[in-house]
Amino acid sequence: MPPIVVRSKIDLAGLAVPLVEVTGSGDGPTLSVIAGVHGCEYAAMAGVRRWVTGLAAQELTGRIRVIPVLNVTAFAARSPFVVPEDGKNLNRCFPGDPAGTLADRLAYDTFSRLISGSDAMVDAHCGDLVEALQPFALYESGPAEDRARVLAEAYGLPYIIRQSAGPGRAVTGSSSGAAAEAGIPAITAEAGGCGLVEEYAVALHVAGLNRVLAELGMAALPTSRADSSAAPTRLSRFLWLRCQFSGWWEPAVAAGESVAEGQVLGTVSSLDGADVRETVIAPARGVVIFLTSSPAVADDGLLLGLGAH
Ligand SMILES: [Zn+2]
């Protein structure tokens, strides 16, 4: 029996957010899938849209709740990184605050009404409008860690990063981090970037989500997508490098490139091209996981993310 698919809008923080609810023919887990936490991460949204459309033809058990574009005002405004109304990064605001500004309230409503009560959660991302990215999945240390790691592996991306709480952590307030704190196995899956809808990245998200369904026992793996990907490389640290001062950023490496400790990763120079103000050096051996692709960087601007062994 095919699943029941209901498309509606859910009121989250006063915004009408598209929601697709898919109910399978038998009992099973509840999976929540979100994309568009960042409003210009189109490859992730495109992957989730294609995947959820394909579910109507599959045999499923359990329930799936899908938000293909969460940050609808950022999407409409083509606003990278932040909710345009308050300038906050939604993925630093989870589990949210009902008394805060729009990003805090959107995080709160998303967490309390969709993520909370799920048996598993996938938050699909990619590089933002000005970020190139090497596909990877991220999961958190904590009580749900073993189940989250299995989902991260199932997604089938070439790198897996385990984040742990405490000093040295790249960011806090992410959706998957808040889910992990509530004991829900959750991953952040990233493929694509630079404001593009590239087919390889869309296909990675579709295949990854199908593998998550199979891993949770909610569906059989579609035979056409049962490709055996190589075992992922595990990275234990995620180092985010920033410049001190604003200027013209010129990377010397590409996303996905392996680098040695001490290797030059790029420079920040004056806008007239006369002086190099900073030379950015790899603090450890690792892989360039994401890279700011725009030359324009602000004071304390984010340049790249290095996954280290
Ligand atoms: Zn993102």
Task: Please explain how this structure is put together.
The chain has 309 residues and is an alpha/beta fold. The chain folds into 2 domains: 4-234, Aminopeptidase (3-Layer(aba) Sandwich), CATH 3.40.630; 236-308, Beta Barrel (OB fold (Dihydrolipoamide Acetyltransferase, E2P)), CATH 2.40.50.100. The chain has 6 helices and 18 strands. Strands 1-2-4-3-5-9-7-8-10 form a 9-stranded mixed β-sheet, with helices on both faces. Helix 4 (145-155) crosses helix 6. It is globular, with a radius of gyration of 19 Å. It starts with a strand and ends with a strand. Zinc ion is lined by residues 37-38, 41, 125, 128.
Secondary structure elements and pairings:
Elements: E1 4-12, E2 15-23, E3 26-35, H1 42-54, E4 61-67, H2 72-77, H3 102-115, E5 120-125, E6 131-133, E7 136-140, H4 145-155, E8 159-163, H5 175-181, E9 186-190, H6 199-215, E10 233-235, E11 237-242, E12 247-251, E13 258-259, E14 264-269, E15 276-281, E16 286-292, E17 296-297, E18 302-308
Parallel strand pairs: 3-4, 3-5, 5-9, 7-8, 8-10
Antiparallel strand pairs: 1-2, 2-4, 6-16, 7-9, 11-18, 12-14, 12-17, 13-16, 14-15, 16-18
The chain binds zinc ion (ZN).
Zinc ion is lined by residues 37-38, 41, 125, 128.
